[in-house]
Amino acid sequence: MNQRLFDWKFFVRFIGIYIVLYYGNLLFWGIIDPKNYYSPFADKYLNYISLLITSVFGFSSMIIHFFGVDTIVDGRYLFIPNGTALYMDQPCLGLGVMFFWIAFIFAAKNPATFKIKWAIIGVLSIWLINCARVTLLFFALEKNWAIGRLDAHDMFNYAAYVVIALLIWLVNINSGKLRANGISKVNPEKVSLTSA
After folding, report:
1. What's the pTM?
2. Would 196 be classed as within a structural domain?
3. Which regions of the chain are under pLDDT 70?
4. Has residue 137 been placed in a domain?
5. What is the pLDDT at residue 14?
6. Which in 82, 127, 191, 196 has the greatest CB count within 10 A?
């Protein structure tokens, strides 16, 4: 059996999907930024960047509240009045890692339900890592922990890469099981092998 060492079709699909997501995001960022080609409609009704920032800060704020610290979320800021404040912008969301994951999942030849399930699992995992990072960074700054001096972006990236590697491993295992189940369901009497 001749098995390819490198799947060029997967690679081309992966690169194509990633480029569309990455540059589509840059284009969208340009139209919601008042300094560029600003679209009030897109900024008000289609702004997934603000939605993601609000969701990360909102969830992090709930965790911080659970530990007895009252915080306020105001747009791109999470803060205590006259105290610790965090600012988040588009580069802090991990969209590049999310796009990598989505491209990896949708470039593979798997059923749509499999792709959607694993895309959601990966994006949600990256989002949760970001929430954990924000929460940890907030407490580190508030309590003057030594970890507060570390680069928060690097912390997030390392954690995200570890999780992505783990998820790729899990997807490959589940994808293999899916293919094995698909092959085992084929009726052997209806399969004919012909030689050319």
Report:
1. 0.82
2. no
3. 1-4, 147-150, 182-196
4. yes
5. 97
6. 127
